[in-house]
Amino acid sequence: LFFLRGAVVVLVCLLTALPGRAEARLTTLAPEPDWSQLDPYQQTITRAEFVRQINTLYAPNGFFWKYAQLGDDRVVVFADTLGTIPLYTLYFAQDAESRRPRPRYFRPESQANTPPPPADQPLAGIHICLDPGHIGGEWSRLEERWFRLGTDNPVAEAELNLLVCRHLERLLKEAGARVSWTKKDLQPVTPQRPRDFHSEALKSLLEAGASLQDLTPGAVARRVQARAEIIFYRTAEIQARTKKVTALQPDLTLCIHYNADSWGNPDKPQLTKASRLVTFVNGCYTEREMAYDDMKFALLSKLLSGAGPLELKGADSVAREMALSFGHPPEPYPHWEAVKQVGRNPYVFARNLIANRLYPGPVVYVEGPYMNAKDTYARLIAGDYEGTRLIQGKEVPSIHRQYAEAVAKSVRDYFKKK
Ligand SMILES: [Zn+2]
Q: Strands, DSSP E only, in 244-398?
């Protein structure tokens, strides 16, 4: 605690003494971008297409342009809003015909000239990565993905996501796909733990404007510990999974989650009336996010990789099947600047989540029904089973199998050659 107090003072001095923006401005744990990694994308996209994707998907609220200058043949991205610290210059292709080929194409885009797969193996040659959301197990409570109603079995999201993914793997493999996982158990992928992030936690609290000086040492320690836990299960864990996805190079990554309304006290949770559904693609970077160099780099990497239109197509397909299967209405998300409904499907939203930002290639981030909704809870408590059971007056299959079947069907549609 004494150390922490001293560290607060030192850090406050350091932060106030920083001369302007001498260093890259980075989010917690983000490595400094290697901008030369974008060089292979020079002249691979036209100006019109670049602008269209920025304005409709990645920064529909306009914040990208606070840090960029658009010319006829190039866009220059800056660290600052005054445009004095250039980070990268991207040159456009003159027109669609003279575009240089992108370094990598994902199926189904790259299937154009390949023969159709056998009818019983529609996903032959396709590589899909499953990313079951959250860590689970002993970490469930810390992740705030755990609640228990009375004497019922506890609901831990990571375990439910894993169940859906196991069924999904079976269905995708039956259709001929190769299936990989970011993780297959209830342990973190990152070898690090919250205790490894105390100094980052303190730094991030101070950067966020927390006034720790007036707190008791015990209160400071608790704030630092809470922030270190978030850095562990959100940032470090997803960074570790990103390494896996990067090495695997799948055609599509599916992030599988169950959604929830806020349940309050996990030991006395609130049940809400009815579920809603939503599927996310990467986009809608906020003003605060755009200020960071690593966010600008991630946005450009994602856009230039060609993932955007594929994510929209995949999310549309998944959202359609999930809505057909479960019948829940879409999320409305009014007045939330970090999300925006995109395309024609009311269930598809752009949101800059750490997983769909960092995982390379097309990522579809699926939110299943609400764990704490009255229309879903009883089915979750019933667990996973074969066939059907009578729940709330209806013969229903295991909710996890129903979820997996909807997603598997949409994946088959997504890769179908048109
Ligand atoms: Zn989740």
A: 252-259, 278-281, 339-341, 348-351, 363-370, 388-391, 394-397
> How many angstroms separate the Cα of 3 from the Cα of each of 155, 199, 232?
38, 11, 21
Residue 261 alpha carbon to ligand 1 centre in Å = 11
Q: Could you tell me how far CA 89 lies from the centroid of its own chain?
A: 27
- Ligand 1 center–CA 255 separation, angstroms: 9
Spatial distance between the Cα atoms of 365 and 385, rounded to a whole number of angstroms: 25
d(CA 196, CA 186): 20
Q: Which of 18, 122, 113, 75 lies closest to 299, judged by CA?
A: 75
**Whole-angstrom Cα Rg for the chain:** 23
pTM of the model: 0.94
Nearest CA to 308 out of 96, 88, 60 is that of 60
Q: Which helix (H) or strand (E) holds 77?
A: strand 74-78
213-221 contact pairs (CB < 8 A, 24+): 213/8, 213/12, 217/1, 217/2, 217/4, 217/5, 218/1, 220/1, 220/4, 220/5, 220/8, 221/1, 221/4
* Cβ atoms of 145 and 161 closer than 8 Å: no
The pLDDT tens digits for 238-264 are 999 999 999 999 999 999 999 999 999
CA distances 249 to 245, 253, 293, 351, Å, are 6, 9, 25, 22
Q: Specify the DSSP element, H or E, that contains 297.
A: helix 293-304
How far is 278 from 328, CA to CA, in rounded Å?
10
Q: How far apart are CA 51 and CA 57, in angstroms?
A: 10
Q: How far apart are CA 126 and CA 251, in angstroms?
A: 7
- Cα(65) to centroid of ligand 1, in Å? 31
Between the CA of 157 and the centroid of ligand 1 the distance, in Å, is 7
Give 257 Cα–ligand 1 centroid separation in angstroms: 4
Does the pLDDT value for residue 210 go beyond 70?
A: yes
CA 258 to chain CA centroid, Å, is 14
For residue 119, the 8-state DSSP code is: T
The band of 7, judged by pLDDT with boundaries at 50, 70 and 90, is low
